[in-house]
């Protein structure tokens, strides 16, 4: 003890330097602990929507994002990046830092169709970590009011009498809206012409203007035009009639057995995101989707809340991919 005090008295500068160094190391350690325990999210979160505003993907993202923002006490920003059947938004998300601050609200076809449809797809399924299926819902076969067909059977007969003359619009190549119509054509044995747009809303604009004769669209958007009398609904593509359009038959009831397709929307993020962040986003999303108010909002859009696990989402993608691979092959579809 005496030796220690003697050293301090003889070398005060050395002692002061040692104290400063020790304080700096302690501060560094403490700041590291604070950083490591910093709750996520500690800044705004972005949800990329790979289609235009106003479409079903956008609506689902905004319903979810608003509530997550309240839960997280952070802004959740909806970032619309349309184009290339969702590939622009998907690629942006895949290249973002794997920290959970950039999420993608993907339509199902981006992972179950596009890998078979695009020859040079700028992303792969391995570029993402999968979080949860947010919502699903049927599609609606919608025609321009000037089209003489009053039923699905009549529409199929009209298309067969005029091969390739019936045009259908979609939200873009490979979109769920595109593939729902291709699957209908496959099941009905008809030859119709695809006109892609950069979003579902734009396809409806041209449907009402008569530039295209048909859209097989997400029921939330499509039903508004049917209810207003500006277009005619011929069939629902799901396994049962929709509460939104209870008088409209399913495709099976309308005379096309074997044709059934449901659109769905899922949250994914860049591959390599820490598992605890993925788990948190999944848990919190599931909590939001369990809230009656949120379920009612989605139901008003013709959607059913899901909120499943990452493993269940991946399994669903694998199962559905086999179906769409066959449709793409049989319809001889490909995009450079």
Automatic annotation (TrEMBL):
Transmembrane segment boundaries: none
Q: Which Pfam families does its entry note?
A: TctC (PF03401)
User: Its domain of life?
Assistant: Bacteria
User: What is stated as this protein's family in its record?
Assistant: Belongs to the UPF0065 (bug) family.
Protein name according to UniProt: LacI family transcriptional regulator
Q: Supply the source organism for this entry.
A: Bordetella flabilis
């Amino acid at each position: 003890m005496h030796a220690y005090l003697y050293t301090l008295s003889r070398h005060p500068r050395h002692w002061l330097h040692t104290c400063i160094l020790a304080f700096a190391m302690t501060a560094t350690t403490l700041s590291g602990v604070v950083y490591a325990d910093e709750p996520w999210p500690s800044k705004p979160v972005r949800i990329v929507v790979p289609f235009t505003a106003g479409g079903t993907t956008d609506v689902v993202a905004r319903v979810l994002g608003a509530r997550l923002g309240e839960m997280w006490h952070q802004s959740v920003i909806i970032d619309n990046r349309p184009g290339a059947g969702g590939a622009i938004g998907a690629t942006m998300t895949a290249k973002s830092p794997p920290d959970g601050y950039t999420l993608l609200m993907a339509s199902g076809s981006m992972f179950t169709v596009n890998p078979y449809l695009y020859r040079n797809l700028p992303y792969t399924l391995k570029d993402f970590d999968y979080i949860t299926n947010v919502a699903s819902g049927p599609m609606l076969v919608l025609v321009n009011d000037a089209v003489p067909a009053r039923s699905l059977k009549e529409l199929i007969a009209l298309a067969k009498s005029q091969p390739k003359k019936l045009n259908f619009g979609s939200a873009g190549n490979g979109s769920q809206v595109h593939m729902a119509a291709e699957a209908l054509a496959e099941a009905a044995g008809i030859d119709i012409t695809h006109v892609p747009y950069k979003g579902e809303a734009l396809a409806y604009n041209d449907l009402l203007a008569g530039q295209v004769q048909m859209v097989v669209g997400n029921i939330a958007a499509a039903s508004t035009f049917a209810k207003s009398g500006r277009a005619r609904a011929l069939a629902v593509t799901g396994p049962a009639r929709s509460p939104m359009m209870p008088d409209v038959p399913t495709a099976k009831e309308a005379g096309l057995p074997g044709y059934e397709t449901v659109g769905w929307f899922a949250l994914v993020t860049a591959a390599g995101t820490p598992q605890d962040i993925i788990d948190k986003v999944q848990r919190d999303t599931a909590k939001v989707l369990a809230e009656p108010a949120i379920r009612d909002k989605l139901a008003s859009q013709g959607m059913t809340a899901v909120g499943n696990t990452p493993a269940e989402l991946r399994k669903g993608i694998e199962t559905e991919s086999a179906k769409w691979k066959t449709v793409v092959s049989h319809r001889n579809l490909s995009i450079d």
